[in-house]
Specification:
The complex is a heterotrimer.
Chain A lengths: L1 H11 L5 E12 L2 E12 L3 E5 L6 H8 L9 E9 L2 E2 L7 H7 E4 L10 H11 L5 H14 L3 H4 L12 H13 L5 E5 L7 H18 L2 E5 L3 H7 L2 E8 L2 E9 H6 L4 H8 L4
Chain B lengths: L1 H42 L4 H5 L2 E2 L4 E2 L2 H32 L5 H15 L2 H15 L6 H26 L2 H9 L4 H30 L2 H4 L19 H11 L4 H30 L4
Antiparallel strand pairs in B: 1-2
Helix pairs in contact in B: 1-11, 3-6, 3-8, 4-6, 5-6, 6-8, 7-8, 8-11, 10-11
Chain C lengths: L11 H46 L3 H4 L3 E2 L4 E2 L2 H32 L2 H16 L2 H19 L6 H25 L3 H9 L4 H12 L1 H17 L2 H6 L17 H8 L5 H31 L1
Antiparallel strand pairs in C: 1-2
Helix pairs in contact in C: 1-12, 3-6, 3-9, 4-6, 5-6, 6-9, 7-8, 9-12, 11-12
The chains are: A alpha/beta, B mainly alpha, C mainly alpha.
Chain lengths: 272, 284, 295
């Protein structure tokens, strides 16, 4: 039954140009599966929201897309993730270059214990931006993009730890944007923030997406937020002790006419 | 009857309480006794001249200048040799070795054993290996290298603890930005782990400066001012030992040297405690 | 922009980034191998230096020869083994209850502020150099024992000093073991109306048993290995003692006293006693490991 629904939902987005094609992706920790058999395609220049209750493997799913799963001990990934002409799960992939192309924002804002400026400059240097002037320019550009420039331009040398929670998260966003990624992965980027900061970050995500045509994949358990910003949505759910993709489709269809009972129940708030 | 039993219990409880207060009181008293004895015996000896002149008459008279210099040089050799190895090993164990890895486990086990080896056995080893096999003779170099072997487990443990205290998020964030492990380590992890590293360094120094048995037949007894690292040099602790055991009438200068040694150790301890507290507040 | 974005392996740049991490790992492995090999090196050198005399007179000689007189090819270590064993036994017997009780004091009796100060004091006690303990023992303790029963330098003096020296070890390990006892156990005991001492005997000590055992093993290791302090207060007469006031010589003191002038087989025999000490320490380390695994 699950299978037919997945097929159905895929058929509804068939005509769109897929950027990332995920096929039978499974991930397990110490032979205990976190999610299994996830198959769907992520269209280009869109915001895709992955929703679901905690512990259903959404965040683990995200780590496969930039191979951060490599860093987690005892973590095994199988399946196929096609980006352009390459399989992201191939051992030959240069993860450094991959992660430059696919940026990631985490739930807890974690700037490095350095100055505000150095937080952005350090990754730039690492990726071969040798020209100091160019780096300065990028710092100003991305800080302006995330609306931090006017707030911090006079204290760029202060420790990033002195920023507020919302500012920290925006700095992390700026740090990722500085590398000019094509795809942004966001793991509950607003859930650790107060409502006002959360609103600011949410607005930013929408605005930046229109400005730079990013493809954004956002994991969230805030349904209202997903509804506000997403073009596509998917539901992860735990079935028989293991996460599965229950339904995937356009946001309109997902929120207004869900096909699966679980999705209906989850959206109405009777489950999850 | 039950009342009698319970009142007896209460008495036992009271008695236990008295004993349990008496023990720490007497330990504290003995500690103060030792310390005050050293301070009272040594304070009269200490002067600028004591610190800056050569020992005379086998140490009964004069100062401890060459002994301080030798001690300092032995410690310097010890740190120069042990710090790179310790930091490297700690990084490998904390950052690059999964817990199940056989090599990591082997290194950890052997360090655990090393931590328990008696200092006199280090002395024997240092004499056979550094002094004889490597031909360094009785020298500051032999002594310092022997001490380096001895402090390795302390340094490695605290550096590793410092690295493990750095939040995992930093590593993930750094990797997600496509930053190599080498740069992450150099620019992010090591600076964050520095306080832990310094605490270990200070503790290792404390252990090294207190050491006697490992030095007697590696760095030797000679109380002249050393002119090179290949000269024999007498450490402060050996000086105390020699004055009190082998030199009759050397007690008063032994007291003075012991006080200096205790003072150095107290300073080292205070620095460690200060660094330790600073390090606790580092992450919110 | 600085360089093309490529995901495949081919560019030279990415080859280098990959190998930067790889080189670092090999360098670190090399350093770790040095650190790990030291204990092996120690073992090898002790065996190498011990072999000449072991091959010439055999192991039995160290237990059955007439006396310890290496200059005349007589290598009986038994009196020194007694010396080490008795000082170790006496000091562990004294320090264990004292250390455990002082940790109990810290955890369950002392007000917070006193506990913190007392812990610092125990740490300082652990940091006093053995030569200072020895010196204090020599100038203060030995004359006192001498008044009680000459000569003063004796097994008793050794036990007293060693007790002071190993007490911090057991006290700190016990302290850590008590800190790991779940709070619910203590609340449960209180709810059952157990007295304070009852809680300690029936709940605290049994729960922390393996931690305490590891503490005892660690202090035993320290007691066996201690050199300078016992050397300074024990009198160093090679004899099997009849009373607690007799001077004795430990294995460690024997090495420290004679290494300076020992040659040939004599030197080799001292390495044999060093090897014996190392063996004991390795056995103790294995015991700790076994207890640790059981928990």
């Amino acid at each position: 039954m699950t299978k037919s629904i997945t097929n159905n939902s895929q058929s509804s987005i068939q005509d769109l140009q897929p950027l990332i094609q995920i096929q039978q992706l499974s991930l397990s920790y110490k032979n205990k599966p976190a999610f299994q058999d996830v198959t769907f395609s992520i269209p280009q220049n869109s915001i895709t929201a992955i929703v679901g209750p905690s512990g259903c493997g959404k965040s683990s799913f995200l780590t496969c897309l930039n191979r951060l799963s490599d860093l987690i001990p005892n973590c095994q990934v199988s399946g196929h993730i096609q980006l352009g002409t390459v399989n992201l799960l191939s051992p030959k992939i240069n993860t450094t270059a991959l992660r430059r192309r696919i940026g990631m924002i985490f739930q807890k804002p974690n700037p490095f214990p350095m100055s505000i400026k150095k937080n952005i400059v350090f990754p730039l240097k690492e990726h071969g931006f040798a020209n100091a002037q160019e780096r300065e320019q990028i710092v100003e550009e991305v800080l302006t993009d995330v609306g931090l420039w006017s707030e911090v331009k006079n204290r760029l040398e202060d420790s990033a730890m002195s920023l507020s929670g919302g500012q920290k998260q925006r700095l992390c966003l700026a740090r990722a944007l500085a590398l000019k990624p094509e795809i942004l992965l966001m793991d509950e980027p607003c859930s650790a923030l107060d409502p006002i900061s959360s609103g600011i970050v949410e607005d930013l995500i929408v605005r930046l997406r229109h400005k730079y045509h990013y493809t954004i994949i956002i994991v969230t358990h805030n349904l209202a937020q997903a509804k506000r910003i997403a073009d596509y949505a998917g539901l992860f759910w735990v079935e028989e002790g293991c996460g599965r993709l229950i339904e995937f489709g356009t946001a309109t269809q997902f929120f207004n006419a869900p096909e699966h009972e679980l999705t209906k129940a989850y959206i109405q708030g009777t489950k999850g | 009857m039950s009342r009698k039993a319970s009142s007896k219990l209460i008495n036992l409880d009271q008695l236990f309480k008295v004993v349990i207060w008496l023990i720490p009181l007497s330990i504290t008293a003995i500690f103060i006794w030792i310390l005050s004895d050293i301070v009272i015996g040594g304070i009269g000896q200490i002067s600028w001249a004591f610190l800056t002149t050569n020992p005379l008459d086998a140490g009964r008279d004069g100062g401890i200048a060459p002994i301080l210099v030798s001690t300092f040089l032995i410690l310097a050799v010890c740190l120069v040799a042990s710090v790179p190895i310790s930091i490297g090993t700690a990084i490998l164990l904390a950052e690059f070795t999964p817990n199940q890895n056989w090599f990591g486990r082997l290194v950890r086990r052997s360090l655990d054993v090393l931590a328990g080896v008696p200092s006199i056995v280090f002395g024997l080893f240092g004499n056979a290996f550094f002094a004889q096999t490597l031909g360094l003779g009785f020298s500051i170099l032999s002594g310092g290298l022997t001490l380096a072997c001895m402090v390795l487990p302390i340094l490695i443990r605290s550096t590793e603890a410092g690295l493990r205290a750095v939040p995992q998020e930093y590593r993930l964030n750094s990797a997600a930005l496509g930053i190599s492990k080498t740069s992450t380590l150099w620019h992010l992890l090591l600076p964050a782990a520095t306080p832990g590293l310094l605490v270990g360094l200070v503790l290792g120094l404390g252990r090294a400066i207190a050491e006697t048995a490992a030095l007697i037949f590696t760095s030797g007894y000679v109380d002249r001012m050393p002119t090179s690292l290949l000269d024999s040099g007498r450490s402060l602790s050996i000086h105390i030992f020699d004055l009190s055991m082998n030199v009759s009438g050397g007690d008063s200068n032994a007291y003075g040297s012991a006080l200096i040694l205790i003072l150095i150790l107290l300073i080292i301890n205070a620095i460690a405690a200060w660094l330790g507290s600073k390090y606790n507040y580092l992450y919110d | 922009m600085s360089k093309p974005k490529t995901l495949s392996q081919s560019p030279l740049q990415s080859w280098f980034t990959r190998h930067k991490d790889q080189c670092l790992v090999w360098l670190l492995r090399g350093l770790a191998a040095i650190a790990g090999a030291i204990i092996l090196l120690i073992l090898i050198f002790l065996i190498k230096e011990s072999l000449p005399v072991l091959q010439e007179v055999g192991i039995k000689a160290f237990f059955q020869d007439r006396a310890w007189n290496p200059v005349e090819q007589s290598y009986n270590l038994v009196p020194m083994i007694w010396g080490t064993g008795l000082t170790m036994f006496g000091s562990v017997l004294l320090a264990t209850p004292l250390g455990i009780l002082s940790a109990i004091f810290c955890h369950y009796y002392a007000p917070q502020s006193i506990a913190i100060i007392y812990r610092r004091l125990i740490e300082l006690l652990a940091g006093i150099p053995s030569v200072v303990y020895g010196f204090w023992g020599l100038v203060v303790l030995v004359p006192m024992i001498n008044r009680l029963h000459p000569p003063g330098t004796s097994l008793l003096a050794g036990i007293c000093i060693l007790t002071l020296m190993i007490l911090p070890t057991i006290a700190l390990v016990a302290d850590a073991a008590f800190a790991e006892i779940p709070q619910e156990y203590l609340l449960g005991a209180k709810a059952m109306g157990l007295s304070a001492s009852g809680t300690i005997w029936h709940i605290v000590i049994p729960t922390a048993k393996s931690g305490l055992l590891i503490g005892v093993i660690l202090e035993t290791g320290r007691a066996i290995g201690e050199t300078m302090a016992v050397l300074m207060v024990c009198g160093n007469v090679v004899q099997t003692p009849d009373s607690i006031f007799d001077p004795i010589r430990t294995l460690t003191a024997n090495i420290a006293l004679e290494m300076a002038y020992a040659l040939g087989n004599h030197r080799s025999a001292l390495f044999v006693s060093g090897l014996l000490l190392l063996m004991i320490i390795i056995v103790l380390a294995i015991a700790t490991e076994l207890i640790d695994q059981e928990v």
